[in-house]
């Protein structure tokens, strides 16, 4: 950017003739002092020409060190003598000081003369030394002889030793550890102001003339006690207690309250603490960590309880709540309530797992188990929630169980994918899936356990399930529960079968007694009229409604021909009914379980038919079996299981068959 | 104040310093350190050993590193210090100290060349002619002097110090401070417990707010010289005996295999150098050995405990070559030399060198010192354990020390403060003196010449506590 003029200027060539001289001279001047470019060599800066670039292209920080500005001749330093006011012996030392320049040149003309002056007979001795201000003498208690005699005299301390103590305190600025370390009082024989020199005079004379025992070793506490006592007494003398201001009184309190025995005991304890052995220290460390652990567990437990309580305190639209909080006052009631809520929540979980879509219209117990605030909010909002909201709340509930850590919410899919499971309650410690499975196999009684085992063996479920994942566990659990139910059902069936057989036998006997026709009619009447009201018929009804196999065997027993038909029916049942059963009872939607094994299907079939009967029978005897079977078949039809429809109508079929017979 | 750019007055608020050209003199058994207050290392470090050759004209003294290592006929090497860390021979001690000051400091002092009188021919001489010096003006008329003393210095010795400084050197002001306090200052601590393992003595000094707690001061002879002695014994008891040949005897050496006899040409002297000279020269080799081979068993446990020796054996050895070329790798032996500093039963003994006392080991010294301190101050002291002295440079010394102290006081927070640099470790007490004597607030503490004249020598007892 250098113009030709600048280059010429740099090279020292004469400036162009047509440019006015003033212009040349002006230009460098305003550039140099006006906008001094820092960090750039002068030569480089000159290349910028008259218009330096608007933006500086150097880094401010990397500037070269500023050249030492020489603002005249080198500064002179002299060894300035000074007097320290903190001393009283007039010691003159010399320290280095900048030689005063124009300010006080009056004394000397030339510098050489000044030097000589300083050296020969320093004329200007500095008298106000900067550091003298740090010389702070301390003040201790001061008293007169009269005061001492009147108030401060004790048998234990001589006047001399007291003075010595006060001197020491002053000397060592209240550093008691040092004072005690240096405290070497030996009573002097002469009654003169005590000094630190020890005059070893005649001890007899000393003992005779002084009313106290020879020097004794004093502990820090002794020294402190004496000193504080003096201070307190003098303080009280100077300022009566009532006139003391707060601060003074506080100090007075401290002084009077000093208890050397207490202090000594404290120190002994401190020393004992310090001198513990390694083992003791380790033990303490161990105990402390243990304590910490227990405390942490306790706070966690408290937090959990608190959480539970706060949930319970939320207004719950519940019968029991309606009955008043009083019903929750026993711990048993609380536990059962918790159990109930827990159960509701579980069934909720299942339901929402299979159910897709329809929003709920009513609040259920699970809604109530939320954080108290959210529960309250939900109630206000009328309880209409999508199943998604529902699910998320369930999750938040699960997180609430372990209070402080907020857990990222996962969608059900991701939860499934990453095998994340939420638990309402976790038992402490580690448990093995295999153990869990094993436990499930065991029933209360040995016989039952064996039955379960054989059932499982029949199903081809191995003794040891290779990979007991939680999913397998769930499936196994449901399987076991089904097995259990089936076993129950079988038991009942066998009982009923036995009854049937007895009745049959009775009937046969009667029939043989009363001639066949009537018996047939009775039988058909039984089938259609169902609960006629009399006990006999009722029993017969039970027999007629026994499931296909029972009927089958029955028939096989008596009539060979019918048996085939029944068999067909039975086979047809199996799958269809199994399905129906699943939907019905478990509502699990676990389709994969259905076709499991034939045996199961068969059993299911049994169970279904009979279960229905029991269900309907249990609440009220008056309900008709037909009604039930109709309802069941209607539902089965609605679910599109034609075959099962046929199955469910089986009872009537059978009865008609029998009737025909 | 040795700033590079000393054109601006230092900000007094910054370091509260005010220099009065004071000289700090820190005499020790092995070396005497001297320098100007305010500097960070002593300018003058002279051996405390001196050479004396008796002639008809009376004893001739030679001082300084060069003079005492020169093998001359009937040159005896002596040390004015007693083995208890107190000066015995005051006359020569004075001369050595004066030499250490004048050879480097006052002679080269800037500013007043006409006054110091040391700028003449004698200034650089190796053997300072004392008569010539005495005829001159007193060497310290311009400079206040701060001297250091061991914590157990008796009153007599202290009085002697001030007498020398005032009468012989003519210092305008004098002060005496304990090495322990100064070493603590050098580490920036006003309170702490100072463990100083020097040449002749090991000392443990509790310091509280810049004051020594006298009752707690502990000392023992288990220090650098003791370790040297142990090494000698290791050499002697080795099979075959390890030859200890000092440098001055060797003209040239050739390389030999490890353990093989040396093949060196030896210098021939038409006179035999004195035993004391030879011994002093051997000491140099031993110090070298200490620096490069000796290792302190770092703990846990003592070296003799359980399998520790086995563990030590499995560690790689360290080679050492004597001045005559003899060399060997030192394995487990190298742990034995300094073990006795911590465990008296680990010492090598022979009839001349009995087993050291248990209470002289460093852990016991620390324990004894702490015991003498007010209970409330003990934790504070243990938080500031200042480690100083040349012998603490032994390899792994601090590891072992930390282990031992933690074993005694497992329940307090014990912290070792050991400057990393060898210079700071060796010269800690001098550095502390340099700091102290350059503080503006310190200048009121000096004992002035006037006070000395008024009160006499025992003023030192009253003022330097
Ligand atoms: N690097 C090192 N390793 C081991 N020992 C060393 C080392 N450097 C020096 N020493 C030893 O340290 C001792 C000197 O230490 P120091 O200078 O602290 O002693 P001193 O102050 O002169 O003696 P004292 O304090 O006893 O009067 C000598 O015995 C020397 O052998
Ligand atoms: Mg030392």
From TrEMBL, chain A:
<feature type="region of interest" description="Disordered">
    <location>
        <begin position="1"/>
        <end position="36"/>
    </location>
</feature>
<comment type="similarity">
    <text>Belongs to the SWC4 family.</text>
</comment>
<dbReference type="GO" id="GO:0006281">
    <property type="term" value="P:DNA repair"/>
</dbReference>
<dbReference type="GO" id="GO:0000122">
    <property type="term" value="P:negative regulation of transcription by RNA polymerase II"/>
</dbReference>
<feature type="domain" description="DAMP1 SANT/Myb-like">
    <location>
        <begin position="129"/>
        <end position="235"/>
    </location>
</feature>
<dbReference type="InterPro" id="IPR027109">
    <property type="entry name" value="Swc4/Dmap1"/>
</dbReference>
<dbReference type="GO" id="GO:0035267">
    <property type="term" value="C:NuA4 histone acetyltransferase complex"/>
</dbReference>
<feature type="compositionally biased region" description="Polar residues">
    <location>
        <begin position="373"/>
        <end position="413"/>
    </location>
</feature>
<keyword id="KW-0805">Transcription regulation</keyword>
<feature type="region of interest" description="Disordered">
    <location>
        <begin position="504"/>
        <end position="661"/>
    </location>
</feature>
<dbReference type="InterPro" id="IPR032563">
    <property type="entry name" value="DAMP1_SANT-like"/>
</dbReference>
<feature type="compositionally biased region" description="Polar residues">
    <location>
        <begin position="544"/>
        <end position="553"/>
    </location>
</feature>
<keyword id="KW-0539">Nucleus</keyword>
<dbReference type="GO" id="GO:0003714">
    <property type="term" value="F:transcription corepressor activity"/>
</dbReference>
<feature type="compositionally biased region" description="Basic and acidic residues">
    <location>
        <begin position="520"/>
        <end position="534"/>
    </location>
</feature>
<dbReference type="Pfam" id="PF16282">
    <property type="entry name" value="SANT_DAMP1_like"/>
</dbReference>
<keyword id="KW-0156">Chromatin regulator</keyword>
<dbReference type="GO" id="GO:0006338">
    <property type="term" value="P:chromatin remodeling"/>
</dbReference>
<feature type="region of interest" description="Disordered">
    <location>
        <begin position="373"/>
        <end position="414"/>
    </location>
</feature>
<keyword id="KW-0804">Transcription</keyword>
<feature type="compositionally biased region" description="Acidic residues">
    <location>
        <begin position="557"/>
        <end position="613"/>
    </location>
</feature>
<feature type="region of interest" description="Disordered">
    <location>
        <begin position="348"/>
        <end position="367"/>
    </location>
</feature>
From TrEMBL, chain B:
<comment type="similarity">
    <text>Belongs to the actin family.</text>
</comment>
<dbReference type="InterPro" id="IPR043129">
    <property type="entry name" value="ATPase_NBD"/>
</dbReference>
<dbReference type="InterPro" id="IPR004000">
    <property type="entry name" value="Actin"/>
</dbReference>
<dbReference type="InterPro" id="IPR004001">
    <property type="entry name" value="Actin_CS"/>
</dbReference>
<dbReference type="Pfam" id="PF00022">
    <property type="entry name" value="Actin"/>
</dbReference>
<protein>
    <submittedName>
        <fullName>Actin family</fullName>
    </submittedName>
</protein>
<feature type="region of interest" description="Disordered">
    <location>
        <begin position="300"/>
        <end position="323"/>
    </location>
</feature>
């Amino acid at each position: 950017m250098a113009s030709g003029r600048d280059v010429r200027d740099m090279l020292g060539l004469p400036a162009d003739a047509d440019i006015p001289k003033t212009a040349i001279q002006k230009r460098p001047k305003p550039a140099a002092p006006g906008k001094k470019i820092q960090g750039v060599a002068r030569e480089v800066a000159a290349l910028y020409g008259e218009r330096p670039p608007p933006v500086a292209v150097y880094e401010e920080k990397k500037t070269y060190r500023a050249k030492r500005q020489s603002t005249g001749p080198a500064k002179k330093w002299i060894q300035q003598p000074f007097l320290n006011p903190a001393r009283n012996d007039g010691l003159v030392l010399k320290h280095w000081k900048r030689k005063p320049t124009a300010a006080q040149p009056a004394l000397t003309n030339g510098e050489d003369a000044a030097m000589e002056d300083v050296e020969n007979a320093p004329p200007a001795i500095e008298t106000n030394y900067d550091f003298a201000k740090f010389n702070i003498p301390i003040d201790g208690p001061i008293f007169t002889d009269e005061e001492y005699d009147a108030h401060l005299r004790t048998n234990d301390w001589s006047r001399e030793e007291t003075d010595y103590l006060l001197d020491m305190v002053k000397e060592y600025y209240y550093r008691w550890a040092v004072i005690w370390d240096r405290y070497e009082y030996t009573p002097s024989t002469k009654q003169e102001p005590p000094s630190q020199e020890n005059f070893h005079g005649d001890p007899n004379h000393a003992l005779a003339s002084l009313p106290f025992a020879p020097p004794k070793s004093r502990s820090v506490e002794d020294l402190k006690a004496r000193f504080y006592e003096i201070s307190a007494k003098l303080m009280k003398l100077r300022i009566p207690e009532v006139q003391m201001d707060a601060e003074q009184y506080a100090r007075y309190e401290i002084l009077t309250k000093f208890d050397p025995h207490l202090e000594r005991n404290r120190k002994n304890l401190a020393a004992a603490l310090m001198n513990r052995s390694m083992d003791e220290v380790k033990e303490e460390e161990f105990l402390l960590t243990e304590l910490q652990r227990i405390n942490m567990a306790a706070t966690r437990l408290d937090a959990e309880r608190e959480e539970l309580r706060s949930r319970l305190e939320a207004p719950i639209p519940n019968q029991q709540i309606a009955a008043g909080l009083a019903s929750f006052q026993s711990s048993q009631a609380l536990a059962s309530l918790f159990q109930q809520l827990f159960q509701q929540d579980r069934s909720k979980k299942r339901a929402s797992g299979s159910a897709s879509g329809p929003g709920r219209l009513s609040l259920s117990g699970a809604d109530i188990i939320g954080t108290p605030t959210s529960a309250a909010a939900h109630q206000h909002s009328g309880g209409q929630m999508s199943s998604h909201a529902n699910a998320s709340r369930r999750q938040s509930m699960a997180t609430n169980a372990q209070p402080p850590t907020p857990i990222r919410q996962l969608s059900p899919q991701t939860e499934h994918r990453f095998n994340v499971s939420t638990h309402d309650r976790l038992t402490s410690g580690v448990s093995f899936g295999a153990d869990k499975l094993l436990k499930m196999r065991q029933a209360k009684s040995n016989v039952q356990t064996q039955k379960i085992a054989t059932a499982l063996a029949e199903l081809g479920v191995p003794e040891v399930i290779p990979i007991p994942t939680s999913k397998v566990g769930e499936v196994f659990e449901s399987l076991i529960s089904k097995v259990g139910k089936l076993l129950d059902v079988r038991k009942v069936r066998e009982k009923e079968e036995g009854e049937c057989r007895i009745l049959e036998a009775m009937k046969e006997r009667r029939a043989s007694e009363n001639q066949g026709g009537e018996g047939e009619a009775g039988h058909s009447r039984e089938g259609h009229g169902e609960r006629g009201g009399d006990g006999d018929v009722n029993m017969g009804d039970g027999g007629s409604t026994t499931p296909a196999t029972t009927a089958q065997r029955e028939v096989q027993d008596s009539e060979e021909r019918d048996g085939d038909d029944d068999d067909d029916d039975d086979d047809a049942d199996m799958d269809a009914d199994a399905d129906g059963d699943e939907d019905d009872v478990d509502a699990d939607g676990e389709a994969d379980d259905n076709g499991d094994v034939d045996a199961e299907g068969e059993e299911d079939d049994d169970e279904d038919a009979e279960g229905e009967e029991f269900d309907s029978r249990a609440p009220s005897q008056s309900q008709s079996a037909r009604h039930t079977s109709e309802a069941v078949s209607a539902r089965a039809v609605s679910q599109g299981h034609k075959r099962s429809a046929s199955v469910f109508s089986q009872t009537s079929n059978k009865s008609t068959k029998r009737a025909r017979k | 104040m040795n700033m590079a750019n000393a054109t601006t007055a230092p900000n007094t608020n910054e370091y509260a310093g005010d220099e009065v050209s004071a000289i700090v003199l820190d005499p020790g058994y092995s070396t005497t350190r001297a320098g100007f207050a305010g500097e960070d290392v002593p300018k003058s470090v002279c051996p405390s050993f001196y050479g004396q050759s008796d002639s008809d004209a009376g004893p001739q003294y030679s001082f300084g590193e060069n003079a005492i290592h020169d093998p001359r006929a009937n040159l005896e090497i002596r040390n004015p210090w007693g083995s208890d860390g107190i000066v015995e021979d005051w006359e020569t001690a004075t001369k050595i100290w004066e030499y250490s000051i004048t050879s480097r400091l006052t002679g080269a002092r800037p500013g007043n060349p006409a006054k110091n009188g040391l700028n003449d021919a004698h200034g650089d001489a190796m053997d300072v002619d004392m008569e010539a010096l005495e005829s001159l003006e007193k060497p310290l008329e311009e400079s206040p002097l701060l001297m250091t003393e061991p914590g157990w210095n008796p009153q007599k010795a202290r009085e002697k110090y001030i007498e020398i400084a005032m009468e012989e050197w003519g210092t305008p002001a004098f002060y005496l401070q304990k090495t322990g306090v100064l070493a603590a200052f050098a580490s920036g601590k006003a309170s702490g417990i100072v463990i100083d393992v020097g040449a002749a003595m090991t000392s443990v000094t509790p310091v509280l707010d810049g004051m020594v707690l006298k009752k707690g001061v502990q000392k023992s002879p288990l220090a650098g010289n003791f370790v040297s002695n142990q090494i000698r014994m290791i050499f002697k008891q080795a099979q075959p005996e390890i030859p200890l040949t000092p440098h001055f005897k060797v003209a040239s050496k050739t390389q030999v295999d490890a353990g093989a006899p040396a093949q060196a040409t030896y210098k021939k002297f038409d006179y035999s150098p004195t035993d004391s000279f030879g011994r002093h020269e051997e000491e140099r080799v031993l110090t070298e050995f200490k620096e490069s081979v000796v290792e302190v068993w770092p703990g846990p446990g003592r070296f003799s405990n359980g399998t520790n020796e086995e563990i030590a054996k499995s560690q790689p050895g360290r080679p050492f070559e004597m001045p005559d070329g003899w060399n060997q790798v030192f394995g487990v032996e190298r742990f034995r030399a300094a073990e006795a500093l911590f465990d008296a039963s680990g010492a090598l003994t022979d009839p001349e060198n009995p087993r050291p006392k248990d209470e002289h080991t460093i852990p016991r010294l620390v324990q004894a010192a702490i015991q003498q301190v007010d209970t409330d101050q003990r934790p504070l002291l243990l938080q500031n354990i200042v480690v100083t002295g040349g012998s603490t440079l032994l390899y792994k010394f601090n590891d072992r020390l930390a282990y031992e102290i933690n074993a005694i006081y497992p329940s307090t927070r014990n912290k070792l403060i050991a400057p990393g640099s060898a210079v700071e470790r060796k010269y800690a007490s001098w550095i502390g003196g340099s700091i102290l004597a350059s503080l503006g607030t310190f200048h009121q503490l000096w004992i002035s010449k006037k006070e000395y004249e008024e009160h006499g020598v025992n003023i030192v007892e009253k003022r330097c506590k």
